[in-house]
Specification:
The complex is a heterodimer of chains A (358) and B (304). With 358 residues, chain A is mainly alpha-helical. Chain A contains 13 helices and two strands. A two-stranded antiparallel ribbon of chain A has the order 1-2. In chain A, helix 8 packs across helix 9. Chain B is mostly helical. Helices cover 69% and strands 0% of the residues of chain B. Chain B is built from nine helices and no strands. In chain B, helix 7 runs parallel beside helix 8 and helix 8 runs antiparallel to helix 9. Chain B is globular and about 75 Å long. The N and C termini of chain B lie close together (8 Å). The chains are: A mainly alpha (358), B mainly alpha (304).
């Protein structure tokens, strides 16, 4: 969690007197200072600073665990028939014989300057390797997110518009079932139905968007559903519970009804708006868990994404590539959390992080 | 967080006895008794199914002899379901599927329960201490958990499984790296909420020591929340075990687990989909019951 004092503090109820505003006009020229000193920028700065030890810890942990693995890249590259002398020679060439701290220091020094090194197996720069892989994973995750949110919002609205009605119960049963389904099982069932019995979508392989946009979407549809269905169920349940709670308990709902708004308008304009906001948090915090799922799904559907690269590079003991993949995952998780907090602060003016503005 | 109260003591449910429904209008609440029964069903139906599945996995092979789950004869390979002697048929190397399902269920249950327990004890302890102590302890513990959360846990699990070699025990260790930070965060958040409560202040003012505070006041109050999460955790662990198996790093074949049965079956998905579907259904029903039970208990105990 956040460092002490950085937690969210909801300040001021609607009726309570707000903090006194600074009365004297600010002199010209202090605009830059006031922008730099703005609470949200300070928040970003503090969060980014707090992220540094976390990211460092992640890279260090990766280095340690990769060193615990038996065998090294030289052995993996040369295969089991290589003589010890050959292995030793290649280790020297790849600097694998240097002590742990020296290698970690070298890697870290490079990484801080933006050099993630070269792949030990192919010799290509790690950034090139990742540049080919990252878009696939990114596209997949985005597609899955889109599917889940696009379906979750209307389903939740439908369910919440009449709690305990047929639509509500049905959607809750389906979403409970979806939550209990392992993504890889869903993937296999989808392949069985939509690729084997009704051959309408490809089971494996990836078509890049430069070849064919439609082919690209088709090739990612089954994987994206495999990931997105679980998310959809999760979001739909969450949103429905939140909207129902708001419709029952919140004063603004009573006000909106009292001034004669249609129930549907109250639902969409007021309750949904407020609930979406809780959803954003969950989406942000969920990104980490999503990455694990992506690795498996990429494996099942043979998508050349970053998960597949990661598995391959762990097998090859290709430390620079593993480090880079793990670092990317960690950065995404940390950034997603930061972005969630910021969005929260932007969307809800009652939330102030640390010190209040005045 | 209200302490769990037996139904008989709850004023909203008790006292709406047999004649409540037929009683004079407005006195009794006719729905209450039905709601109470529905609530009990919500808990006992999934619990019952879980007990049945677990009993089948652990007791059936002791009571009623089944063929061994490994080392089947190739002569019996690929028998369809409902073959004599093999109710669910055999897999491509001639092992009895029912037997693999039962023995595999044992492994899946063991992995799920063990990782949830490790998470509950280790993560719970870390979270409670961090939340209760605050300050430096909190900062250090939470940073370490942050690293574990930001680290793609699957990678850690993969590396552990590969470094130590695949086995059931190592799978449990690997998956525990998921459960410990999750439990830690939940325990910490719950402890933080608790710290602000009046009864905690009262206890501290009356001179209760730190350890006693934790054991008598904090632990019992956050246990319902951790328990319901542990039920979900068992399900997640069982699914993760399958994911590791899928990557060849879970329970080493030929030893069965539901996860690696699915993974092995996926290789012959088109020819014999039942090899995937049968263990998938078991996995699904088990996880579904765990989720339903977790939800029902959460509602019953009033956990957020």
């Amino acid at each position: 969690m956040a460092a002490r004092g950085a937690g969210p503090a909801v300040s001021g109820r609607p009726g309570a007197p707000g903090p006194a505003l600074p009365a004297e006009p600010e002199p010209r020229g202090s605009v830059a200072r006031s922008v730099l000193g703005s609470p949200s920028l300070r928040l970003i700065g503090r969060r980014l600073l707090a992220a540094i030890p976390v990211l460092w810890g992640v890279t260090f942990l990766t280095f340690v665990v990769m060193n615990l693995l038996p065998g090294d890249a030289a052995q993996e590259l040369l295969g089991i028939n290589a003589t010890p002398a050959e292995v030793k020679q290649l280790s020297l060439k790849l600097h694998l014989n240097e002590p742990f701290w020296v290698r970690y220091g070298n890697w870290l020094g490079g990484a801080v300057h933006g050099h993630l090194g070269n792949s030990l197996t192919s010799g290509d720069p790690v950034t090139t390797v990742l540049g080919q892989r990252l878009p696939v994973t990114f596209e997949l995750v985005l597609y899955a997110f889109l599917i889940s949110v696009v379906f979750a919002v209307p389903v939740a609205l439908l369910a919440a518009s009449k709690p305990r009605g047929i639509a509500d119960r049905l959607s809750m049963v389906i979403s409970m079932a979806g939550l209990s389904t392992a993504p890889y099982v869903l993937a296999l069932v989808l392949i069985l139905v939509f690729a084997v019995h009704l051959p309408i979508l490809p089971a494996i392989g990836y078509v890049s968007p430069s070849q064919s946009i439609a082919g690209n979407i088709r090739s990612l549809t089954l994987p994206a559903i495999s990931i997105g269905f679980g998310l959809f169920c999760f979001y739909a349940r969450l949103l429905r519970a939140d909207i129902t709670a708001q419709m029952q308990a919140e004063d603004y709902v009573v006000t909106a009804r009292a001034k004669g708004l249609q129930p549907r308008q109250v639902l969409v304009r007021h309750a949904l708006r407020n609930s979406l906001f809780g959803l954003i948090t969950v989406v942000g915090l969920n990104v980490g868990a999503l990455i694990g799922t992506t690795v498996i799904i990429e494996q099942i559907f043979s998508l050349p994404g970053i998960g597949q690269e990661l598995l391959q590079s762990i097998n090859d003991r290709d430390l620079p590539v593993v480090e880079a993949c793990v670092l990317i995952f960690a950065v995404v998780v940390v950034l997603a959390n930061l972005l969630t907090d910021l969005l929260y602060a932007v969307l809800d003016p009652r939330i102030r992080y640390g010190r209040a503005i005045a | 967080m209200a302490a769990p109260l037996p139904d008989a003591l709850r004023p909203d449910i008790a006292g709406t006895g047999a004649d409540a429904g037929a009683g004079a209008g407005g006195l009794g609440r006719p729905g209450a008794r039905r709601r109470g029964r529905a609530r009990a069903l919500e808990i006992w139906v999934p619990a019952g199914v879980l007990i049945l599945i677990a009993a089948a996995c652990f007791l059936w092979p002791l009571v009623y002899p089944v063929p061994p789950p490994v080392g089947g004869s190739i002569l019996n390979a690929g028998l369809p379901p409902f073959s004599p002697g093999h109710i669910l048929g055999t897999d491509p190397v001639g092992n009895d599927i029912l037997s693999r399902l039962l023995y595999g269920g044992r492994v899946s249950f063991e992995v799920g329960v063990a990782t949830a327990l490790i998470g509950l004890v280790v993560g719970g302890l870390l979270g409670i201490v961090a939340g209760y102590q605050g300050g430096v302890v909190d900062a250090i513990v939470m940073r370490v958990l942050d690293v574990l959360i930001a680290f793609p846990s699957l990678v850690l699990a993969l590396v552990i499984a590969e470094a130590l070699g695949p086995s059931e025990l190592h799978t449990i260790w690997a998956i525990s790296f998921f459960s410990v930070p999750a439990f830690g965060r939940i325990a910490r958040a719950a402890t933080l909420r608790l710290r602000e409560q009046t009864f905690m202040l009262a206890a501290r003012l009356s001179g209760t020591g730190g350890r006693r505070m934790l054991l008598r006041h904090v632990v019992p109050n956050i246990l319902p929340q951790l328990t319901t999460f542990a039920l979900l955790g068992v399900g997640i662990a069982i699914i993760l075990e399958g994911a590791l198996s899928y990557l060849g790093l879970g329970i080493p074949p030929p030893g069965p687990s539901w996860g690696n049965m699915i993974a092995l079956g996926a290789q012959t998905l088109t020819a014999s989909p039942e090899l995937v579907l049968i263990p998938s259904i078991c996995l699904f029903v088990t996880v579904l019951c765990l989720n339903l039970l977790g939800d029902a208990l959460r509602a019953r105990w009033g956990v957020r």
